[in-house]
Amino acid sequence: MTIELAKPDYCIADYFPHCKKSDPQIEKCFLDAVESMRPRLKSGIPEVNVPALDPFTVPTLKLDRTASNLRLKATLRNMKALGGSNFKIEKFKLNLNNKYLAEVRLSIPKLVVAGDYDVRGSRILTVDINGKGKLRGNFSAIYVVAKGLAKPILKDNVEYLQVDKVITKVKIGHGHIALDDSDSPAAASSAATFFNASPGIVLDILNPLVEETTAAVLKAFLNKILGGIPIKDILTDETNTS
Questions:
Q1: Would you list the domain boundaries of the chain?
Q2: What is the pLDDT of residues 212-228, one digit of tens each?
Q3: Could you give the residue ranges of the DSSP H alpha helices within 2-152?
Q4: Which stretch of DSSP H or E encloses residue 226?
């Protein structure tokens, strides 16, 4: 299926990035293209594999981490996040000198998250967390700095970009959650009350896991898009613009 995507007879729309490598304002070119696409990002752009941002859906997330004050083993399913299309790019840097390196700093005013959770044998600080049910959360004042490195790969003698590495720094200003566990309602209520009483403390403890998960989701998101669009259709130079 991926190989078939490498040879579609499609036409990239004008609003999609078409930027020259030699353009001294290449960052502005990409930012302008993102703003042109913004109205379409909410519901997604299927023809170029851009998934919907509202809601942004993650079918399954497996979390497994042990650190100071944290032992977490959880599976999250059917996760949906609303509010992602309201992102604002604060800063964008691109380095194309013999590599494909990018850094973006963005903010999201608010995310509303919902899904199913299954947590076993976990603990945050002194609170044991076990159970299975539904999760709802409101998170605000979200700031993300992401750095990514990509490399060109060949598919059917056509060059595509593949993201090799993503590192993120994430800061969440505030959060509030609700847990619905029909088998252990008291335990779910206790865990939610603990989080909501000190969201900043809990989010700081969870932050390395949040950053790791954000990087993994972002890498998969970008590779889904870049895997179907040849480099020459996004980045041009004087040798292929005539």
A1: 12-236
A2: 999 999 999 999 999 98
A3: 2-5, 26-41
A4: helix 199-226
Query: How do residues 136-186 score in pLDDT, each as one tens digit?
Result: 999 999 999 999 999 999 998 999 999 999 999 999 999 999 999 978 899
Quote the tokens at residue 191. Answer: 């865990």
Task: For 145, list phi and psi in degrees, rounded to 5.
Answer: -115, 120
Provide the 10 A C-beta neighbour count for residue 234.
19
- What is the 3-class SS of 171-225, one letter each residue? EEEEEEEEEECCCCHHHHHHHHHHHHHCHHHHHHHHHHHHHHHHHHHHHHHHHHH
| Nearest alpha carbon to residue 114 among 64, 176, 167, 165 | 176
Residue 89 pairs in a beta bridge with 106
Report the distance separating Cα 69 and Cα 127, nearest Å: 10
Radius of gyration of the chain (CA): 20
CATH no. for 12-236: 3.15.10.30
pTM: 0.86
